[in-house]
Amino acid sequence: MKIAFFHNLPSGGGLKTLCQKANCLRQKGHEIVVYSFSSAEKDFPRLWDHVTDHQVVIPLEFRGGGKYRAYQKASEELAGRINQSDVDMVLVDKCRFLGSPTMMRYLKKPFIFYTQEPLRYKEHERLAPPDFLAKNFIHKKKPIQAGGRGFRLGQIFDHLMIRKIDRQNLRKAENIWTNSCFSQAWLQRVYNVRAEVVYQGIDVECFKPEPGLKKTNRVLSVGRISRIKGYDLLLEAITKIPVAVRPGWDIVCDDETSSYSMGLQKQAEENGVDLRVFRRIHEKELCRLYQESKVVLCASHREPFGLVPLEAMACGTPVIAVDEGGYRETVVHGKTGLLLPRDPALWVQHIQEIFKEPEMRENFGTAGRQRVERQWTWKNFIDAIESWAQSHLERGDKIHGPRPT
């Protein structure tokens, strides 16, 4: 098949998995074409390295009073280019600005919309699945910045406008896939749509144990340095571990909120925590850090999937994660790692226990690797795409009629 990918993503796990999907399909002999806007992340990771035919990039500046009209025009142009091409199907991913991309309104090719989570607005977060404790994460009101009340009114207008467009666009997607049962329930509550859970995978040839490699006295976290990633909890827990046995802490990030990152690093220094931050490192270096760490710590709020635990498990490293969101679907408590509430005292206790018990670490690591090899490779995802495409193309479903509003 000839498959088009659309994305307007920032750097991060969403773009990383998109790259891996493209690469796996390419290895199966499919031809991949990437369509995106100039606002999409292009450099980290290098999605273009997996393109076999060509890429189409439509200029877009999403700023100023005319940004919504500019976005619509760019979406029409991009969808038109896809419709005129000879691609068989389209894999549509989320948009960094609007959530559900407007180009779906104009597509006339069979397409799947793969969405990770709802837009992360306060009213949407309140509609997370009921077993999630909403009190764990409280949005703080942003201070009124330069421009005073007029600036604040502009923020409110953008919030309402984006939420409206996001919902309208989503209704144009007949085939919606998502990454976890947690996300499925969340999407149902926010948008009243039914998404099919199709789990993503891990590159087990890249992320794998390194026999004989000595573990360091360090723990590892991976993800953008922002409050939503739960680093405050981890810093508090590590700080409470006695200095004599306190591990060093490594964070690998693709981006950061500068003020929060500076504050986190300052607090770590003041509390005697040896914190190292690695920014946009190569995949091989990331894998090395997974392999060398004694445990990987994951504390994101409302994590929709749980890619980091799977990468750690693939490398044979145990995981401690908060007992929330998609982590519940990737980490098996007591077998591949631990799922804990947001209680720093419990984190302190279990981090020290894992450090003291090499047999426990080894058992968790072995079970984690086996679980990833058995259930979390890309094969199931690629098989699902091929099966879906075959069923549509056999019916001659070259023209995709959008769902009526």
Give the CATH H-level superfamily of the largest domain.
Glycogen Phosphorylase B
Distance between the termini: 31 Å
Q: How many DSSP H or I helices? A: 13
Count of discrete domains? 2
CATH architecture of the largest domain, by name, is 3-Layer(aba) Sandwich
CATH topology of the largest domain: Rossmann fold
Q: Characterize the biggest β-sheet.
A: 7 strands, parallel
Q: Please provide the count of β strands.
A: 13
Radius of gyration from the alpha-carbon trace, in angstroms: 22 Å
Strand residues, percent = 15-25%
Q: Give the SSE string.
A: EHEEHEEHHEHEEHEHEHEHEHEHHH
Descriptive notes:
- By secondary structure, the protein is of the alpha/beta class.
- The protein has 2 domains: 2-201 and 378-394, Glycogen Phosphorylase B (Rossmann fold); 218-375, Glycogen Phosphorylase B (Rossmann fold, 3-Layer(aba) Sandwich), CATH 3.40.50.
- It contains 13 helices and 13 strands.
- It has helices at residues 13-27, 67-84, 122-125, 148-170, 181-191, 231-240, 258-270, 283-292, 307-314, 327-330, 344-356, 358-375, 379-394; strands at 2-8, 31-37, 55-58, 89-95, 111-115, 176-178, 196-197, 218-222, 248-253, 275-279, 295-298, 319-322, 337-340.
- The strands form 2 sheets. A 7-stranded parallel sheet has the order 3-2-1-4-5-6-7, with helices on both faces. It has a 6-stranded parallel sheet with strand order 10-9-8-11-12-13, with helices on both faces.
- The longest helix is centred in the middle third of the chain and has 23 residues, at 148-170.
- The radius of gyration is 22 Å and the shape is globular.
- It starts with a strand and ends in an 11-residue tail after the last helix.
